[in-house]
Amino acid sequence: MKAREFREMSIDEMQSKEAELKDQLFKLKFQHELGQLENALKLKSIKKDIARLKTILKEKSEETE
Fold first, then answer.
1. What is the pTM of this model?
2. What is the pLDDT along the chain (65 residues), one digit of tens a residue?
């Protein structure tokens, strides 16, 4: 996802999206360890999405303070 898409979400939506991405990352890491993961670039992509999401969440929480 792009940062613009994350910025359009509410804080609750972003928190649920973060949980969903973390779950996906866990499953992909498990598949990678078993040698079943076909596209290892998905791991990198999901990690970047989580980082983007956390950054935007922090920005929004600082705005409300």
1. 0.88
2. 788 998 999 999 999 999 999 999 999 999 999 999 889 899 999 999 999 999 999 998 888 77
